[in-house]
Amino acid sequence: MNRDSSSNRSVARKLLLSAASSAIVLACIAPAAAQDTAQTTATSDEEIIVTGIRGSLQRNLDIKRESSGVVDVISAEDLGKFPDSNVASALQRLPGVAIQRSGSRGDATGVSIRGFGGDFVRTLYDGRQLSTATGGRGIDFTTVGADFVGRLSVYKTPDVELSTSAIGGTIDISLPKPLDREGFVMAASASGSIQSRDKGITPTGGLLVSNTFADGQFGVLGSVAYTRRDTESNQVFIPGWIGAQGGGKLGLYACQLTATCTSAQMTDANRTGKATWFPQQHGINQQSTQDKRIDGRIAVQWQPSDDILLTIDDNYSRQTVSSQSYGYAAWFNGSDLRNVKTDANGVVVDFNQFGTPMDFNANRSSNVYESNQVGANLKIDLAENLKFEADAAFARATRNPGKSGYNDSMDIGYGGTNANNTTVLGANTGVTILGASKDYLPQIHDIGPAGNVSRFLDTSVVGSHVIVRGTNYNHDTVRQFRGAIGWEKDGFLAKLGGQYIDDTLYQQGDSTFTNGVFASRSGYGTCSGRTGGSSGGICPLPANVYQGTVSTSGFIPGYSGNLAPGFFVYDPYAVYKLLEASGGSVAPSFNPGSVLEVHEKTWSVWFKTKFENEIAGMPFTIAAGIRNETTHLQTTAIGRRVLGLSIPAGDPTLIQPNPALGPNRDGYSASTEIRKKSNYTFLLPSIDAKLEITPTLVFRADASRTLTRPGLSSLNPVTSLGTLRVGSLSASGGNPDLKPYLSDNFDAGLEWYYQRNSYLAINAYLKHITNFIVGGVTRGPIDGVIDPSTGQTAIFSINAQINGPEATVKGFEIAVQHVFGDSGFGFQANTTLPSSNRNYDKSNVTGGAFAVTGLAKSANFVGFYDKNGFQIRGAVNWRDEYLSGIGQGQGGAYGAEPVYVDAQLQVDASASYDVTKQFTIFGEVTNINNSTYSTHGRFANQALDIWSYGRRFTGGVRFRY
C-alpha cells in the first residue's frame, strides 16, 4: 500500500512538472490569438471595466509591466470576488511564492518568498505596518480576511518609499475605498463549508456597502464579514529525536544493543561511540478546531477638489481559535532502552523499554486574536507637478484580551516504574521505524497493562497524572507616521520622505510549571501500578469522566504502520474537579519568567528618483533610491535563578524545580528586573533598471540592500527552563543585542508580453546575507544546579541566538500565463528553483549547525475557463522537501536538530456561474487529492509530525448591485 502511495506521488509530481514545461513551450510557440473579449461592464460615462478572471489577469500584467522593480500582483475579479477565500492561498500562484500550512487545520497560515519565510516577509495594509501579538515579524494569514481585498502586491525588489525591511519581500494589501466607484455599490456573499471529517456545515457571510455624495466629493464605505471553519485532523507525532550522549561520549551503552544493562555497565566508557538518535516520545492526537473570525472596515473619503484627497479608515478583526483534542503517548528515556536496533545512520529503528507507562491526554484550548488599526491619509497637489502626502496610523493587536484564553490539558494513564524500579502494569513498549515519514507511521508495539493489548483501554486501571495548564497574554502597539513630497514632470521623478514607527510588544503568561501543580498528582494512583507516594493520583477515575473511545483504524490514509487500537474521549475539567475535591488547587499561576516588554523605535529618511529616456530608440527607465534607518531598542524582562531540581515522588521520569526551595516555594530565587538597551543604523540603497527592447520584450536589472529585524520575542535577555525529564534537560533564551540580517540583492530578468493577457518571464536572483541569526544549541550548566537523577552538575541543552555566519541564496523563477484567444480557456504556470551554499550538514553533531531555512523547489499550475458567465479554475501546487527550522520540540544532546517538511502536492478547484449580472453561485473544493502534511528530522525515517486534515467543500452565492 505504501509503495503504491509513494509511486502515485512520484507520478503526480512528474505530471505537474511536465505540464508546467509543456505549458511554457506551448505559450512560446502559440500564435497571436484574436483580440480578447472578456466580460465587460459599461459605466454611465461609457468607461469599460473588464471583470472576471481574464480582466483580473490583465490588470495584474499591466501593473507588473509598468513597475520599475520586480512586482507581482493579484487583484479581485470584481468587488467582493477575490480569487481565493484565503489570502495566502491566492499568493501561492505567483512565481517565487510558496505557502506554509498549519498541520492542525491544513490552512495556508503563512507565505515564503524566494524561500524566505514569514519573519523575512513584511506585510502591510495600504502601506502601513500591521501590529501582531505573536512576537514575530510575520503574520498568520488566517487572520486576514480575503472577502473584500482589492489587490495584493508582492514586491520582490524593494521600493524605498514603501519598505526595505524585508529580505524575502514585501506584501501590500490594498483595501477598497468609497471613491474607487461612483454612486451606490453593494456586494454581499454567503456560503457554507464542510470538512470531510466534520459533521456539520459552517457558515460564512459578508456585506459591503459604499456610496458617494456631493457630486462624488464625499464617500463612505462599510464592510463586515463573518467566517467560520471547523476542521477535524489526525496527528501522529514524535516531538524530538534525542542524541544518545553523556559526558561527551557518543552513543547508547553497548549492552543496550543485546540485553538489559546492569548499573555497572552504564558508564560513559561503555558507550558505543557512534552517533545515535532515539525517539523521546511517541503518540497520536485527534484535534477538532473551530476558527471563527469577524472582520469590519469603515472608510471615509473627502475630495473637495481635484487637488486634495483625505481618507480616514478603521479596520477591525477578531479571530477565535478553539480546539479540543484527545490521544495517547508513551515516553522513552535513552538509558532505559533495550534490544536496540539501529540503521546505518545511527537511527534507532526498534527497541523495548521496561515498565513503560501509557498516558492518555485531553486538551481544551482557546485563543483570541483581536486587532484594530485606525489611520488617516492626506494627499495634496501643491502645484501642477508637486505633490505631498502624509499618513498616520495607530494599530493594536492583542492575544487573549482580558485574559480570555486558556490551554488546559489533563493526562491520565497507567503503568510505569515506581521509585524502587519495580512495575505492576508497565509494559515493555517500543517503537519500530518502518521507513520514511512520508509513507510510514512509527509503529508502536508491546502495549497495554502488563503487556496485554486487549486491556489497552481498560478504565479500571486508569488514574490521574500530570496537569498541564496555562496560556499567554500578549499585546502589540504600533504608532506610525510617514510623509513625502515629490516632483514629477516629463518622465522625471524626485521624491523625499520620512517615516517613524514606534512598536511596543508586551507578553506574559501563566503556567502549572510555575507553582508545582504540574507534577503534584503525577503518581496515577494505586490501581494503576504506580502509587506515587504523597503525590499519587485518583485511581480508578469514575465512569462519568469518560465520553467514549475513538478507533485508530484508517487514522492517516495512505500510510503503513500500526497504532494502538484507540484512545479515550474524556472531560479534563471533570478530573480537575476530582483533584481539587481531594485537596489543593489545580490552577496555573503567573510565570514571572514569561514577562517581556520590547520597545522599538525606528526613524527612516529616504529619497528616490526615476528617469525615463531612450537608448538606441528603446524606452529606458532607471529608478534609484536610498533609505537610512535608525532603530533604538529597550528590552525589559524578569529574571530568576533556579535554586535546585528534584524528582517528584509520583513520577520518577520527571524533573522539576525543587518546590521546597525559594521564597515562593517554587524552586526559584526572588525576581529581579533586567533591562537592556541597544541601537543600530543602516543605509539601504536600491537601483532598478528597465529596458523595453521591443514593444513586447522587457529586460530588468535590479540591485539593493535590505534588512530583516529579529523577532521582538527573540530579544528576551532571560534564559528559561524547558523540557525537564530524566536524561533530557533543555532551556532557551533570547539575545537583546541581536542585529538585523542584512542582504545584498541582485536581480535580472526578461519578460515577454507576446499577446493580450499572456506573458512569459524568466528571472534570476542572488542574495548574499550577513549577520545571519543562528539559533544554535549548546550544552552546559545553569546556575550550577545538580541533576537529581545523576547527582552530578545538571547539563542542559540551551537554545540561544547570535549573529554570525554569512550565506548566499540564488535561484531562478520561470512563469507563463496564456489565454487561448476568445475560447475562454487559459492557464498560469510557474516554477521556482532556489539553492544555497549553506545547507544543513547531517553529519554535524557538535551543536553548532547552521543552514538557510525555507528553500524549496516549487511549481504551480492553474488552468481556467472564463466565458459566458461561467468560470472554472483548477490549481495544482507542489513544493519539494525543505528545511523549516533548526531545533525540535524535544530534541537535543547533539545540538541543533533539524525539522524538514516533506514534499507536498495539493489539488484545489473552484467554479462559479453568473445567473444574472448581479447574482452568482459558486463552489470550491480544497485538497481534492487528500494530501497530508509531514515532517522529519535529520534523516527521512525520523518522523516528527504527520497530519491528515481531509478535504473541504464550499458552496455559496454572491450578489452585487
Number of helices: 4
Any low-confidence stretches, pLDDT <50, length ≥5?
Answer: 1-50
- How far apart the termini lie comes to 53 Å
Apparent shape: globular
Q: What portion of the residues fall into strands of 2 or more residues?
A: over 45%
> Which class of secondary structure composition applies to the elements?
mainly beta
Rg of Cα set? 29 Å
**E-strand count:** 54
Average pLDDT number? 87
Present the secondary structure layout.
Elements: H1 2-29, E1 40-42, E2 48-50, H2 52-66, E3 71-75, H3 87-91, E4 97-101, E5 108-113, E6 121-125, E7 128-129, E8 151-155, E9 169-174, E10 185-195, E11 202-213, E12 218-237, E13 241-243, E14 245-246, E15 249-250, E16 277-279, E17 281-305, E18 308-331, E19 337-342, E20 348-356, E21 358-381, E22 386-399, E23 406-414, E24 427-432, E25 443-445, E26 463-489, E27 492-511, E28 546-551, E29 566-570, H4 572-581, E30 589-615, E31 618-639, E32 645-646, E33 656-657, E34 672-692, E35 697-708, E36 719-725, E37 728-733, E38 741-755, E39 758-770, E40 773-774, E41 777-780, E42 796-799, E43 802-803, E44 807-819, E45 825-836, E46 858-867, E47 870-879, E48 882-886, E49 898-901, E50 904-914, E51 919-926, E52 932-936, E53 943-948, E54 952-960
Parallel strand pairs: 6-9, 37-42
Antiparallel strand pairs: 1-2, 3-8, 4-5, 6-7, 8-9, 10-11, 10-54, 11-12, 12-17, 12-53, 13-16, 14-15, 17-18, 18-21, 19-20, 20-24, 21-22, 21-23, 22-26, 23-26, 24-25, 26-27, 27-30, 28-29, 30-31, 31-34, 32-33, 34-35, 35-38, 36-37, 38-39, 39-44, 40-43, 41-42, 44-45, 45-46, 46-47, 47-50, 48-49, 49-52, ...
